[in-house]
Amino acid sequence: MSAAYPVHLTVNDNTNVTIEISPALSVDEVRAALYAAAGYAPSADLVIRLSRPNGVLLPVGPHIPANSADSRYILDVKPGLGALSATGSSGSGALGNALDVVTALLDKVTLLKDKMTVISLDPKEPPTTRKLRDALPPAERTIFDKAVTEHLKHPTFDIWQWEEPAMVDLLVHMFLEFKLLEHFKIDEGVLRSFLESVRRSYNFNPFHNFRHCFCVTQMMYGLLHVTGVHEKLTPLEKLTLLVSCIGHDLDHPGFNNAYQVNASTELSLLYNDISPLENHHAAVLFTILRSPETNVLKPLNDADYKECRKQIIGCILATDMAKHGELMLRFKGYAEAGFSFDDAAHRSLLLQMITKCADISNEVRPKQISEPWVDNLLEEFFTQSDREKAEGLPFAPFMDRQKVTKSGAQVGFIQFVMIPLFELVAKVLPNMEEPVITPIRKALEYYKALGAGPTA
Ligand SMILES: [Zn+2]
């Protein structure tokens, strides 16, 4: 028998477990060992996700690379969509069989308990994690007060007061309010399964998490309403914007493109260093959309589907800030020559610019709502630059905890990125000044008053 070796894991964010695997094990046996490490019996309704600490996914199989206890892989085990659906495929008899498999397997796979390890093999007591605790029954939707749904249309909406299930319901509301389910005959259960699947595919990064996804979508929805441009957009374009914003950072590992490229991660190899993250977000989105039970685009006819897919990919790729200058220049050209809603290229770029605005829109929000995001973003940046230093990789000064101050980071970003972007879009969309641009200018004054730091 080939030599077994230890694989060190952090399971569902809270438990350290070390398992021993052997190259002689089959894929199913390794999978079952990982389920067991997470305290589950194997089941068709479990989704397993194994990644390196930097979030890069590892294949589940007998050739998981060996690692050390101080660079544990992250193991995330969560119910699949079958568990959410009343017509899910798991029969109750599967559980007994699964336990037998685990019991048999434990003879082959040694589970070494770390100091803090708790291993449970009782399938009725799965480890509690945020992802699992928030599972939603598909048919129950919160009906929101009119004051809430009206406020939802405005950039001042308080995005902190909602838990994840409520954010899902608010997203459902946006589809309903645009009458997209009616128009395209999209099943509400499919929409909810889609959103649930999306929610579970966002990681727990300080910044690039499901709440950021909700914020971006809500700001896009708010921008459409305050400018009234939703009345000029087709249902397909509104669907495009909603799905793009919802999917735009899916499975973000918390380390940016520069890191992906410099560290030669799997993502940078897969996408040849070309917007590796944005390509990944779009690919994860369309993977979710490939399953019939989560495919909100299924009812579209072929021509609409093709158009929608093309536009969504365009919107998501446009969120790579490396493309910022080029997109600004093109949009400026359109705006100066006379923006035309009759021109498909103009409309398409407008969707991308709206997505970009929404993505970096935190400073449009009132200070008490926007400020915590700055801390979260800096935390994510600092974690990255710490790792880059540790790995001997180049690191950006704007991510260096020794060099950056909150005010310094914000002044430069607001002044040189946000204001020019929003002012340019305001040349095409009406009514941006008071609800959108004035708050950004106030934020600039606020951070200037706090004192410009070294990067300003
Ligand atoms: Zn984003």
Brief characterization of the structure:
With 456 residues, this protein is α+β, with helices and mostly antiparallel strands. Helix content is 52%, strand content 6%. Strands 3-4-1-2-5 form a five-stranded mixed sheet.
Question: Describe it for me?
Answer:
Zn(2+) 2 binds at residue 249. Belongs to the cyclic nucleotide phosphodiesterase family. It comes from Geranomyces variabilis. The protein is of the alpha+beta class and 456 residues long. It folds into 2 domains: 5-117, Ubiquitin-like (UB roll), CATH 3.10.20; 146-450, 3'5'-cyclic nucleotide phosphodiesterase, catalytic domain (Catalytic domain of cyclic nucleotide phosphodiesterase 4b2b, Orthogonal Bundle), CATH 1.10.1300. Helices cover 52% and strands 6% of the residues. The chain has 19 helices and 5 strands. The chain has a 5-stranded mixed beta sheet. Strand 1 and strand 2 (15-21) form a beta hairpin. The protein is globular, with a radius of gyration of 23 Å. The chain starts with a strand and ends in a 6-residue tail after the last helix. Residues 80-138 and 452-456 have low confidence and may be disordered. Zinc ion (ZN) is lined by residues 212, 216, 248-249, 319, 359.
